[in-house]
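A reminder before we start the practical. When you read a complex entry, don't treat the lines as separate problems. The point of joint prediction is that each chain is placed relative to the others, so the output describes one connected object in space. Small molecules and nucleic acid strands, if listed, are placed in the same frame. In the example below there are two entries. Take a minute to note the order of the lines before looking further.
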Amino acid sequence: EVQLVESGGGLVQPGRSLRLSCTASGFTFADFTMTWFRQAPGKGLECVGIIRSKVYGGTTDYAASVKGRFTASRDDSKRIAYLQMNSLKIEDTGLYYCTTLWRWGQGTMVIVSS
Amino acid sequence: DIVMTQTPLSLSVTPGQPASISCKSSQSLLHSDGKTYLYWYLQKSGQSPQVLIYEVSSRFSGVPDRFSGSGSGTDFTLKISRVEAEDVGVYYCMEGIHLFTFGPGTTVDLK
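Here is the predicted structure of the whole assembly.
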């Protein structure tokens, strides 16, 4: 069964950092582009970062709102995708999902507040 | 950046009746590989999004055949032939050609 499990969320002060992890099982992780989305409470979905598979060069892309602050990476041997979030802002608050676009995790909540 | 719009933003449907949602993109979603990367998702209350349709009209595994997608270029439609209680939720279209931009969502509930 395909599973994606996010972890690493929590309450953090503005300006601090957090690293999210997405642990995959049930499929050939290395073959898939992994995408991070977020959803602020009661709002829609925003793609924040994409990390492509090695087949597509392992390249990354980011939303303008997080470029320079967030970094997506992956460890194919461990089947884990990461989202390093630095210089967090209050507006980064939300439920963060990792996904292959076909399957989604349940999300991990990030709250940025002083 | 690509902007995705949806109409209507909310829809109340009598069970057993059809429903239709329109989605427009600000740029063509036709890729150089010949495929058009338009997805439809349903997000039920308290759940993660689930994919219904990919590449405009292909149903994902396990999606009932009452769901169908159509369109090309910048104009797309999701149709539910006969709405059931389990279809309630927020429907999103998403472009898959650039930065996976979602539309604002269409809330579907039952009359």
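Discuss with your neighbour: The two ends of chain A are 40 Å apart (CA to CA). What might explain this?
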